[in-house]
Amino acid sequence: MHDCVGSHMKRYVSFALFVLGLAGMSFAAYRLGASRSDRLTLGGDADTGLVVPAKGMPTMAPPAGNKRSDKFARVNLTTHEGKQIQFYEDLAKDKKIAVNFMYTVCKGICPGMTANIKKVREDLAKEGIDDICFVSVSIEPDKDTPERLAAYMEVNGIENKPGMCPWIFLTGDIQDIDYLRKSMGVYDLNPEIDEDRTQHGGILTFGNDRTNWWCASPALQRTEKLKEVILRITRDRAPLNPPRLDPVPLASR
């Protein structure tokens, strides 16, 4: 199992890890400090570890399969440029991707997450790395229009230039975004906390869909460590596949 959280974290962190086969991905439940706005539980059904869509959520279920991304919701969203995209097909399938959830008027952890991702992206460019797509998904899509997301990028000095990893901001239907978020395991097990966007957690989920290596890590950690973990998880290597579980013959039981 990958060490996705550095030992330098000074505040108490409680982990609830689950592993999906040998996919190389660890999701964790983090409680950072006393502030509930820093807490996020990454998990799902207690028996299966799979996300169960909440009542009233869209019915388009992702296909069952061996890859972690097979569980990502297939939803249509809109970029900061007003372009319609399908999250999995256009951004995740066979690609390297890093995703966080935020909203533009957040005064809590969002500014720090944005600043850290920006610094990591700049440092990656200095090393000639431009093949990881960073994606920030608004959890307040009713207010975060494409124009507002574009303005947020401008205020924070975020540009998509040649030689830099692309950074896309997304908005869309709140049910679609909630389904995507939960299908990626990014939610609090307490429904009341999970529905309060001001208490969302600062997690960056990243991986390489070709190799099936994924990880979730605090976006507010030191940028050097965050960059190191992102590079370790997303680098090209032989794919990992969950083991095949063949039925045991009755005669051998």
Would you kindly provide a written description of the structure presented here, covering whatever features stand out?
The structure is a single chain. The chain is α+β, with helices and mostly antiparallel strands and 253 residues long. The protein has one domain (18-54, 63-243): Glutaredoxin (3-Layer(aba) Sandwich). 24% of the residues lie in helices and 17% in strands. It contains six helices and nine strands; from the N terminus they run ββββαβαβαβααββα. It has helices at 87-92, 110-126, 146-155, 174-183, 191-195, 223-234; strands at 18-19, 26-27, 76-79, 84-86, 96-102, 132-138, 167-171, 203-208, 213-218. A seven-stranded mixed β-sheet has the order 4-3-7-6-5-8-9, with helices on both faces. Strands 1-2 form a two-stranded antiparallel ribbon. Helix 2 (110-126) crosses helix 6 (223-234). The longest helix is centred in the middle third of the chain and has 17 residues, at 110-126. It starts with 17 loop residues before the first strand and ends in a 19-residue tail after the last helix.
Based on the structure given, which CATH architecture is correct?
Answer: 3-Layer(aba) Sandwich
Number of β-strand runs: 9
Class per helix and strand makeup: alpha+beta
Shape: globular
Low-confidence stretches: 1-62, 243-253
Look up the CATH topology.
Glutaredoxin
At the fourth level of CATH, the homologous superfamily is: Glutaredoxin
Largest sheet: 7 strands, mixed
Estimate the mean pLDDT confidence: 78
N-to-C CA distance: 31 Å
Strand order of the largest sheet: 4-3-7-6-5-8-9
Percentage of residues in strands:
15-25%
- The CATH class label is Alpha Beta
Run of helices and strands? EEEEHEHEHEHHEEH
